[in-house]
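Protocol step 4 of 6: structure prediction from sequence.
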Amino acid sequence: MELLLATEFKKEKVDFFLDIDEVVMDIEQLRKVTGYSSGRKIKELFETHPELLEKEYSYKKKVPNLEGGVTKMREKRFFTESGIYEVSFLASTPRAREFRRFAGTILKSVRKGEMIPKLPADRWSLMEKKFDGIISTFEDRQDLLENLEGNTEKVVNLLEELKGKLTDFDNLKEDVKALKKAVNLMSRQMDDFLKAFGEEG
């Protein structure tokens, strides 16, 4: 694993690493830039979306960690590029949305060689294919959300119409109950009449 780019987002340190052909970011930095105030908060996200712990989105790896002047190997969770976008998408905070755009812009510039010297062509080729696939997925999801937002009024109108029909149905049920009571009453009255008529005969 090697440092690909060190930068900042809203005064928070952001380090993008390259692990073979995968752009990754550690969990602590991702937590801060997406607006989670504590480790507990982001753990709640993992409980709701356990797929984020799958290898497609994140994985654990032992890396050197300086502790009291001594370097020790410690296990840390890193998020892949897909994981970075997925967490920032699910966070649904203004800060997370800003970071998603920021990360997309930064990594695109990195791939173009505008921010750091280019890596070997074969590695860039693999990274670009992954990047294109990831961006396409999130653009599709964004379009879906926008379409849903645009059709909100239609959905509300349909729900109101359905509510009206259910109300009509409830009223019909009450009418049927009343009619049934009237029929039962008429039936009892007819029985009484026939009994009285029989007794007179």
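Step 5 (inspection) to follow. The mean pLDDT is 76.
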